[in-house]
């Protein structure tokens, strides 16, 4: 019999003889009788650190770092008995106990995460942790364990699935962009307000006629700049096309020279071939002559008749052969000449074809240039008509004045009445006085204004054209007659 005492954070678990119900007795100190077994069970809570890998309802994996402080329920006898049975054969830091606790925590965490979206887990982290604790505690009750403390750290991305990292970057960038937008919006409001105040002050201080002159000068300058730009573009386009035509002409001249060289080479080759063939025929002729002389010597030893016969036969064959070779040479020469003529004709045809293609290309580019000029003129006229608020009469008068049509009409009328005696109206000063009239500069101005109506009437009678509305109107003929 042995007397055993447990430590401050320990308890003795005793089984064996004289222990029936329950089959395990827990005590701080006790006599151990023969036939009994005992073991010290440590009641100190243990920290378990896990990296739980789970997956949300959208199949997005994440890691849940957690630290659980787990120990026995010392205030519940039934739970202590369950814990004693669990620890009677294993140490509390053994792999078996660690795997048991880890399996419960991971299983419950995965099941709960699979029923929630990542947004719900991330935004409801506190409630998510509480549900995990509740479900894990429910499973640990069957082993007599209690969660004394649990610390779930921030959710972490699984390598290769950086959801939280990107979500944090998105939130950070959205906040930064919103701050930039707010700053720029404040700057915009300040600058706009300042400029509006300055603009209102300047507008109220300026005169209407001054603003009209400024706008007119600006529009005129813009029209001139646009006209200069269009003319420059047209000139550049023309220069480019002239350069293309010059390049095509140079290529054509080079090809013509190459074709001429090939034709001359063909003629030289034909002449040399004829001369070579003639030399071969001359050689064969000499050989035949040598054979003839040999046969002549033989004939002198034989009979004169046989020799004459052989000589005639050999001469006839030689003449026939010579004529055949001469005919072949003439045929070969004619054939080469025909080939040379054909090559020359092909070259001439190709040159004419390329020249025609060049002219066609030039015409096409000229038509494109004319089309571009017409488009530019149309844009110019559309801009003028828009600036004149759609007043076609004002546009016509502006074009006529700008192009000098009134001067041209006056010149034509002067040429038409040359040598005739037309009715000439002379307008003098304000009161019909001549150069001796007094009254200062205002009388001259009044005289000019009195001169305008009859001048407009004369132009209208001769050309049928009316003056622009902003310059003046014709006097009513009926009223003038009645008065």
What can you see in these coordinates?
With 483 residues, the chain is an alpha+beta fold. The chain has eleven helices and nine strands. A hairpin with a 5-residue loop joins strand 6 and strand 7 (61-72). Helix 2 crosses helix 4 (125-140).
List the keywords:
483 residues, alpha+beta, 4-stranded antiparallel sheet, 3-stranded antiparallel sheet, flat, disordered C terminus
What's the gist of this structure?
This protein has 483 residues and is α+β, with helices and mostly antiparallel strands. It has eleven helices and nine strands.
Strand fraction: 5-15%
**Total number of helices:** 11
Largest sheet: 4 strands, antiparallel
Would you tell me the structural class of the helices and strands?
alpha+beta
List the helices and strands and how they pair.
Layout: E1 2-5, E2 10-16, E3 25-27, E4 29-32, E5 36-42, E6 46-55, E7 61-72, H1 77-87, H2 95-114, H3 118-123, H4 125-140, E8 145-152, E9 156-157, H5 163-205, H6 208-301, H7 304-387, H8 392-402, H9 405-416, H10 441-463, H11 477-482
Antiparallel strand pairs: 1-4, 2-3, 2-5, 6-7, 7-8, 7-9
């Amino acid at each position: 019999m042995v007397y055993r005492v447990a430590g401050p954070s320990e308890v003795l678990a005793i089984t064996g003889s004289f222990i029936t119900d329950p089959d395990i007795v827990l005590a701080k100190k006790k006599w151990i009788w023969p036939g009994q077994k005992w073991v010290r069970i440590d009641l100190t809570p243990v920290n378990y650190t896990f990296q739980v890998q789970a997956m949300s309802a959208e199949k997005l994996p994440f890691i849940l770092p957690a630290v659980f402080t787990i120990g026995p329920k010392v205030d519940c006898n039934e739970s202590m008995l369950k814990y004693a049975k669990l620890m009677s054969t294993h140490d509390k830091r053994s792999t078996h106990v660690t795997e048991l606790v880890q399996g419960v925590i991971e299983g419950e965490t995965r099941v709960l995460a699979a029923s929630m979206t990542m947004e719900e887990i991330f935004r409801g982290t506190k409630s998510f942790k509480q549900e995990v604790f509740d479900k894990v505690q429910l499973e640990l009750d069957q082993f007599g364990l209690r969660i004394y403390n649990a610390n779930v750290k921030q959710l972490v991305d699984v390598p290769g699935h950086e959801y939280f990292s990107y979500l944090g970057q998105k939130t950070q960038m959205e906040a930064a962009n919103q701050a930039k937008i707010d700053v720029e919006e404040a700057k915009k409001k300040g600058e706009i307000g300042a400029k509006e105040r300055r603009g209102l002050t300047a507008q109220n201080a300026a005169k209407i006629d001054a603003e009209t002159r400024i706008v007119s000068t600006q529009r005129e300058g813009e029209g001139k700049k646009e006209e200069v730009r269009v003319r420059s573009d047209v000139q550049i386009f023309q220069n480019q096309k002239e350069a293309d035509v010059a390049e095509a002409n140079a290529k054509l001249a080079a090809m013509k020279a190459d074709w001429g060289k090939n034709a001359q080479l063909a003629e030289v080759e034909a002449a040399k071939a004829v001369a070579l063939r003639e030399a071969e025929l001359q050689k064969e002729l000499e050989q035949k002559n040598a054979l003839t002389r040999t046969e002549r010597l033989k004939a002198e030893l034989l009979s004169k008749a046989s020799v004459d016969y052989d000589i005639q036969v050999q001469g006839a064959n030689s003449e026939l052969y010579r004529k055949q070779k001469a005919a072949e040479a003439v045929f070969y020469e004619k054939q080469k000449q025909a080939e040379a003529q054909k090559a020359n004709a092909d070259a001439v045809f190709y040159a004419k074809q390329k020249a025609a293609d060049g002219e066609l290309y030039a015409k096409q580019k000229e038509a494109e240039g004319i089309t571009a000029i017409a488009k530019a003129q149309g844009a110019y006229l559309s801009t003028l008509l828009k600036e004149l608020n759609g007043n076609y009469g004002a546009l016509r008068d502006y074009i006529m004045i700008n192009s000098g049509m009134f001067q041209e009409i006056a010149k034509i009328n002067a040429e038409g009445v040359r040598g005739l005696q037309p009715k000439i109206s002379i307008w003098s000063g304000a009161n019909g006085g001549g150069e001796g009239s007094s009254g200062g500069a205002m009388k001259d101005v009044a005289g000019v204004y009195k001169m305008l109506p009859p001048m407009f009437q004369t132009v209208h009678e001769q050309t049928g054209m009316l003056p622009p509305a902003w310059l003046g109107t014709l006097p009513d003929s009926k009223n003038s007659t009645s008065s």
